[in-house]
Every structure is written in structure tokens, then in C-alpha cells.
From TrEMBL:
Protein name stated in the entry: ATP-binding cassette, subfamily B, MsbA
Localization: Cell membrane
Keyword vocabulary terms for this entry: ATP-binding, Membrane, Nucleotide-binding, Transmembrane, Transmembrane helix
Residue ranges constituting the ABC transporter domain according to the UniProt record: 370-603
Its membrane topology: Multi-pass membrane protein
Residue stretches spanning the membrane: 20-47, 86-117, 170-188, 194-211, 282-301
Amino acid sequence: MTYFRKILQFAIPYKRFAILNIICNVFYAIFSTLSFIALIPVIQVLFDKTKRVSKKPVWDGIRNIKDYISDYFNYEVTQRVNEDEVAALVFICGIVVLLFFLKNLFGYLSSFFLTFLRNGVLRDLRDAMYKKILALPVSYFSEKRKGDTISRITADVNEVQTSFLSILELIVREPLTILFTIIAMLLMSAKLTLFVFIFLPVAGFIISIIGKQLKKQSNLAQEENGHFLSIVEETLSSLKIVKGFNAEDKFYNRFQDSTNRLNHILNKLVNRQNLASPTSEFLGIFVIVIILWVGGNMVLVEGSLDASTFIAFLGLAYNILTPAKQISKASYSVKKGNAAAERILAVLETPSTITDAPNAIDKKNFDSEISIENIDFKYEDEKVLKNFSVTVPKGQTVALVGQSGSGKSTIANLITRFYDVNEGSIKIDGTDIRQIKKASLRNLMGLVTQDSILFNDTIRNNVSLGKDHATDEEIIDSLKIANAWEFVKDLPAGLDTNIGDSGNKLSGGQKQRLSIARAVLKNPPVMILDEATSALDTESEKLVQKALENMMRNRTSVVIAHRLSTIQNADKIVVMQRGEIVEQGRHQELISANGIYKKLVEMQSFD
């Protein structure tokens, strides 16, 4: 229950609905009990004439309230029977109908108020989960399956919401119904009620044994649910590769293995859960039979209990069965909800390693240089960067080149603070970027990645992602600089054209030019270009390269380059190998040095 108590913190804003729910549940429990107690005077008056009361009872203090209410009710019914038996029957039926109506009215109202509580918690939990996902560092998701995260924000949150209903019933409605019913039973016959007290805990113990493994099974089910969602997500995002390599059967078998495991786990889970209801009902009927035997002796042999009271007592005893059965179901549901809450809190309580320092500054301008000073960095065990240093003066373009795995893209990730350095520092205008607010730092930078990351939305909304309330004129200007307006203007809906999932309605070159237009519109002082042309054909590359040159004019740029022809005009070219700088200088200087850079250029020229 530890995890569930933490989740209950999300209910605090909706406590007024919880209070109204509790009030309605109290009345539900009261009228549920009264509806059975009403049977006693009815049976007494209609079938045992000696119990009729012809004299109006007199109030004799609170101690005798039970006798006063019973006699007063009998008196009212007796008056009507003496006048007209049909009228008496209508009166009695009216009382019974009214009690059951009030019971169900308050039952509905309790559910009505609970709805706002449950759905409010559902919304707030999802909002908190999504906000946390946005706040967590990029490194967190490189280790996790996307499908598992999706499962936690959907299926697990739904499970908690469902359990929320169960736990409030567990705490309020059903225990109160049992409590009021037992009080009424004690007033009728303490001896018979004692038998109920003896057998109900035994029944509860048996039910608890059945549910012992439920949380474990529920956890397994939710983990497997996350696994098969991951397979679906990977299949959808890699469908061309799956089909191109005729791997449909392989992926189908992987998916089927997962759904078979989930099916096996769910069968055990649901069958164990379904066992709760018949077990509790059977044990309840067993208790009723014991009461019939003991109570029958008290009525027929001992004469210590009248028949009408015994019949009402049986009704009350059966009235305990339904809430007891609901409590057993709810306890199962709470165990499942606790397992889901554990998985949700695992995300919500994950510490974010990339956070703003307490005294972090809000930097608005870029004035002089970016300096990378003696940094070391490793993703896991092996160092990706070793004692790396470089300076990027304002207004200049510095290009990073080298073979794959040399650490070029890592530099881009560190400058934008997607990761933090292990040793050394990265400074902007002499201030360590860890002392600058993340939002402020990233406002100074525009990012164009190798993969064109676009959203299933319009061109307008994709391009204006970094600048709210951008005018059409500003968007069109940025598209022109990015050489993208030439194809956007010919689209049927222009700026309002939806580009599909990940921009798949466009070609690779068109997608990349939209990414550049997005960075241009943001108009930051520093541009980070991470192999922005490496995935393009020759014609698209020329258009994109022209767009990049337009964008980098009079701007500070860090360019991670795969195609060396695109960075020949850079102010400084840094050649990297295994995380270290092996050469640096301008293009012509490096060619003259006849080193690694020249070999890389010759290899690409040969290609």
C-alpha cells in the first residue's frame, strides 16, 4: 500500500468530492440497513396480531429509543389495518419503496461524486507523467523501451484509476454497511451475531490466501504489456526495413511470443480474481446455514427469539454478503492497482540528472565565444571524449570531422546539455553552461539533426515550433532562406498542409529544409548542425547546403560534418579520432599538412 498512498496525494485537489462521496456512502449504508429492519414490524403486524399496538407510545428517553421507534411504527400500521387492510399494505409497501429509493439514490450520488475524483486523478497523473517524461534526460530513454513508457502512462494509469473506485468502497461504503448491519443484528440477538463474528474472519482469511500472489501476477502482466507495445512501436517506426528484409514472419513470431506470455499471465491473474466472488459467496451462504440452524433452535426450541425478528436477522446477515464480496474484489483490485502505482512512481520519482543549478542564471545574449575546456565524457564504461578542448569564437564556423564513433555528435549533445560532461567544462562567454538555466541555454541555440525530426502536423506548426505567434510573413521568409518555399508554395494547402507522421509525405531533402527553416525562424545566435546533409542525395544536398550557408551567414556555428565538401569554408576544422583532436586548422592548411584530414578528403573524392 506504500505506493498507493503516494498516488493518493493526487486526490488532494478533489477532496471535496471525496467528502461528498463519504457522506452519500454513510446514508447509503444507513438506508441499506433500515430497508431490512423495516421487515420486522411489517411481519409482526400482518401475521402476528398480538404484536399490534393500539395505544400511541410515549417518549421515555433516549435509552428506550429502539422500543419507542418499533412501537410507534407498529401503532401507525395498526391504525391503518383497523381502518382498511389494503391501505395498511399500501402504507407498508410505500415505506419499503421509499427506503430502497433513498438507498439507491445515495448509492448513485456517491458514484456521481466519485467520478469527478477518479477522472481528475486520472488526468493529473497523466499530466504529471508526461511532464516528467519531458523533464527526464535523453539518456533515460536510450536505456528504456518506448512501449514500456507508453504502457505506464496508459494501461498502468487506467489500472490505478479503476482501483481508486475500489479503495474508496473498501474504506467507506462497504465497511459502513457491514458496521450498521452488525449493530442492528446485535440489537436483535447478540448470540446469533456472535456466530457471524466467528465465521466471517475465517472466510476473510481464506479469501486473503487466494489473493496472495495477485500483485506479483499483475506486475508481470503490466511488464509484458509494455514489452508487446514496444514491439508494435518498433514495427510501425521501422516498417520499410521489416518489409524490405522480408522479416514480417520474424516480427510476427516475436509479437506472438509476447502475446502468448501475456495470455498465460492474464489467465492466471483473472482466474484467481474470479475465484474471489464465488468463494466469498459460498463462505457467506455457509455462515447463513449456521445461522439458520442456531436461530431455528432459538425460535422453535428455546423460544428466545420471535420468528419475525429471525427473518429480518437473516435478511441482514445476507446483507453483509454483498459488501463482504465487494471488499474481497476491491482488495484484489487494490493489489493490482498497487503494482501499477509502483510502475508509475518508478517514472515520477526518477531523479533528473540534468537539472538547473540553484543559482543558475537566465542568459539572454551570446557575446564572445563558446569554450570547451579539457572535457572527458563516457556513456557507459569506455570514454567517448578524452581531454577535449576547442574554442568557437562568435561569428565563426567550427567544423568537427572524423570517422563514425570519434565523438563528433557527442559534442553537440554536450553543448546543448542533453548530457553533462564527466570532467572539464563547457562555457559560454566564460560562464559554465551548468550555471545557466537549461531553457535559457537552449534559447541561444538552433539545432538541425541528421534525422529530420518533424511532427504529424501542418508545415506552419512544424516551422514555428521554436517561436510562438510567428506571422505568416516570418514563416515564409524562413522557408525562403531554407530553400523550402519553392515546394511549399505549390502544395494544395500551402502552410496549412499536413506533412504526415514524421513528415513522411515529403522527400528527405524537403524534410531537412523544413528542419532548417524551423531553426532559421527561431533565429538563435548559435547553430548546431549535426550531420545535416549526410542522409541526402546529391541534388537535395546542394539545395540544403545552400540553405545552410544562408542560415550560417553572420552566425556562430558548430558543424558536425560527414561530407567534407560541405565544410571547406569553415573558419576552423577539427579532426577527431577516438575522442581526441588529431588535427585542426582551415581546409587548405590541413590539406597541405598531408595528414588524416587529407586522407579523409581523398577517400570521399574517390567515392
